[in-house]
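Long-time lurker, first post. I've been practising inverse folding by hand and with some scripts of my own, and I keep getting stuck on stretches where the C-alpha cells seem ambiguous. Below is the full C-alpha cell string for one chain I'm working on. Before anyone asks, I'm not after the true native sequence, just a reasonable design that respects the backbone. If someone could post their per-position residues I'd love to compare against what I wrote down in my notebook.
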C-alpha cells in the first residue's frame, strides 16, 4: 500500500497586490511506497513546499486529492495529520527550553498521555540523549536539526516529511543527517524529503520524483533515474 497517495493535486495562489495568480502545482499525481525513502527533487520555486504544506494541513489545495496512510486529507483530516510528522526548515522551538521539555510540550499538544510519552527514547534515536537537559539555545546547529526531527517523531507517525533537511549545512553535518534519516527508515518509518541537491537524492533515496514549474516530470526508482543521466 502507498504511504502517501496524491492525485491531480493543484494549487493556485490567488492574485494579490499587483502580483498575478500563481499556479504552484498544476495537477500532480504520485504514490510514495510504504517503507521507502522518497525524494522530491526540484529547483527553487518548483512547488515542493506547497505540496508539503498541503500534506501538513497548512495550505489549502485548489483541487485534486491527497491521502496519508490511507486517510484522505479532506475526509479524515485528523487521522491524516496523526499519520505524518513534518520536519520544517526553520528552527521552531523555544531556546530556553531543553530538548526533553520541547518533546514533552509537543507531546502535550498532540494529546499524547503522560504514560505513553517516549521523549527519552526519541532523544536517543536522534542521538541527543546527552543533551536532554541542556537549553536548546546551547545546542550546535546539527543538534538543533536533530531536535527538529525528534519533534516530528513524538506522535510516532508512520511517515515523516523533511523539507530541505540539509539546506545550508556543511558536508560533515549533511552526512550525519543522511545517516540519521537512514536509521529512522531502517526503524520502519517511511521518509519523504525535498531537496534541490541531486547528489542528496541519489545517495539517500529509493525513489526520486522530479518536480518543475508545478509539474511532475519524472518519478522513478533511483537506479533507473541515474542510469538515464
Ligand atoms: P519550492 O518549495 O519548490 O521552492 P514553493 O512551493 O515554495 O516552491 O513555490 C512554488 C511557487 O509558488 C513559487 O513561484 C512561489 O513564488 C509561489 N508561492 C509560494 N507560496 C506562495 C504564496 N503564499 N503566495 C503566492 N505565491 C506563492
Ligand atoms: P545517544 O547516547 O544520545 O543515543 P549515541 O551514543 O548514539 O547517542 O551517539 C553519541 C554522539 O555521536 C551523539 O552526541 C552524536 O553527536 C553522534 N552521533 C552518532 N550517530 C549519529 C548520527 N547518525 N547522526 C548524528 N550524530 C550522531
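-- Answer (accepted) --
I ran through it position by position. Result:
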Amino acid at each position: 500500500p502507498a504511504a502517501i497517495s496524491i492525485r491531480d493535486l493543484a494549487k493556485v495562489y490567488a492574485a494579490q497586490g499587483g502580483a498575478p495568480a500563481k499556479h504552484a502545482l498544476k495537477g500532480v499525481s504520485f504514490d510514495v511506497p510504504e517503507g521507502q525513502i522518497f525524494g522530491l527533487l526540484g529547483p527553487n520555486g518548483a512547488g515542493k513546499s506547497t505540496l508539503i504544506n498541503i500534506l501538513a494541513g497548512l495550505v489549502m489545495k485548489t483541487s485534486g486529492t491527497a491521502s496519508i496512510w490511507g486517510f484522505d486529507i479532506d475526509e479524515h483530516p485528523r487521522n491524516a495529520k496523526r499519520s505524518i510528522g513534518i520536519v520544517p526548515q526553520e528552527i521552531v522551538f523555544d531556546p530556553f527550553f531543553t530538548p526533553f521539555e520541547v518533546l514533552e510540550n509537543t507531546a502535550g499538544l498532540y494529546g499524547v498521555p503522560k504514560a505513553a510519552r517516549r521523549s527519552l527514547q526519541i532523544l536517543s534515536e536522534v542521538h541527543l540523549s546527552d543533551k536532554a537537559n541542556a537549553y536548546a539555545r546551547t545546542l550546535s546547529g546539527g543538534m538543533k536539526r536533530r531536535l527538529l526531527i525528534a519533534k516530528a517523531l513524538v506522535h510516532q507517525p508512520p511517515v515523516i516529511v523533511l523539507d530541505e533537511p540539509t539546506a545550508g549545512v556543511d558536508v560533515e553535518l549533511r552526512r550525519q543527517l543522511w545517516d540519521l534519516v537512514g536509521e529512522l527508515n531502517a526503524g520502519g518509518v517511511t521518509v519523504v524529503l525535498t531537496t534541490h541537491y541531486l547528489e542528496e537524492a541519489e545517495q539517500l533515496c529509493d525513489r526520486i520524483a522530479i518536480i518543475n514549474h508545478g509539474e511532475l516530470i519524472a518519478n522513478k526508482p533511483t537506479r533507473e533515474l541515474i542510469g538515464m543521466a
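A couple of notes from the structure itself: The longest helix spans residues 171-186. The CA atoms of residues 125 and 183 lie 8 Å apart. Happy to go over any region you disagree with.
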